[in-house]
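Shipment paperwork, digital attachment
Item: protein structure file
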Amino acid sequence: MEYSFRNCTLDDFDFLFELKKQNFKWYVDKIWGWKDNEQKERLKQDLEEHLQHKRIILVDNKGVGVYAVYITEDGKFFINEISILKEYQNKGIGRKILEEQLKENQSKGIRTILQVFKDNPAKNLYEKLGFKVYGETETHYQMENVK
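Attachment content:
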């Protein structure tokens, strides 16, 4: 499935909130308890700090996900978020985005890192793409690409 990107704007708030709710509510509920108002406030803060790092993933000109990345202070490429609407998951979009990014980063000698909720099934995809766990928090695995 072919995809493209466009820059994220504040007008994407409702889409991003529904995407977050669809994909992460059950994780958040399990650990802290999901409250729409709190999560909207967190998203608002996240957009204030990281809007320039976020891109909307498009398929046939329709927003189907978000991809957020940035370079850390110590020069690592951090995949902060990759999230795709459920009806577009398991169609190879996320895998293709990650494969292309990893290829580019490897050619430049840049270390690629991310973190994933411990019980997120996406961890399996990350492992297939060469990510290994190098650390963990109470809720997340910290992973780096070692291929």
